[in-house]
Design brief:
Helix content: 25-40%
Number of helices: 9
CATH class of one domain: Alpha Beta
Number of strands: 14
Mean pLDDT: 93
CATH superfamily of one domain: Acetylglutamate kinase-like
CATH architecture of one domain: 3-Layer(aba) Sandwich
Strand order of the largest sheet: 5-8-2-1-11-13-14-12
Low-confidence stretches: none
Amino acid sequence: MDLLSVIKIGGNIIDDEAKLKAFLAQFAAIKGRKILVHGGGKLATKLAATLGVQQQLVEGRRITDAETLKIVTMVYAGFINKNIVAQLQALGCNALGLTGADGNALKAHKRGQDARGDGIDYGYVGDVDSVDSEFLAGLLRQGKTLVFAPITHDGKGQLLNTNADTIAQEIAKGLSADFEVSLVYSFEKSGVLQNADDDSSVIHRIDRASYARLKEQQVIFAGMIPKLDNAFAALDSGVGKVIIGKAEDLPSLLAGQAGTTIVHE
């Protein structure tokens, strides 16, 4: 099976022009087929302030009302997505920018108020229902590199703001029957850490047994638990491996020389 790298980057890269440029040079140099999923960074919040659209965040999650949806669509699917695509073209990487609505790639439904059990109405936030893997695989086999903005649709004309980590996971799962998939989540830390205050204390490999042990010892706790639960869910759905680490270390992450690799056994 052909190799496929699905890589998600967040605001720490999107918001830093120099880091983004350096990352995209590394990304363009990856051999084989690849998909980049990007978050939104701070630009949407800045634009909302300029336009006088009040923003509400609950535990770091944006409440997406109708006006905010317009802004995040313009910023995420517009400027950020096309800026990345243009930079990749300049690097000789033939990229195609997409949202879930394009080609019906990702369908979602509007999150119900009690979907997370917290009683919060997140507004026009979507949870993914399906991935058109045949469509995406066809584009990849044409030699296109896909760049996904975190916007989906419900099939009834409604756009939805959707978590970029979730989009990356669902795409990786959906394409795992066609490709040997590596899923990379990048964030600010060098990987899953033995000591949360020591960025050099990376745990290089985690399987189910060690994950259970690390949770019991409370080495892994709080926000890292859902990340790893999602990683194992991806592995259960056919993804070959999941890697967590810094986007700046991309070549080493893919080579297994940096970050934390999550595996079945």
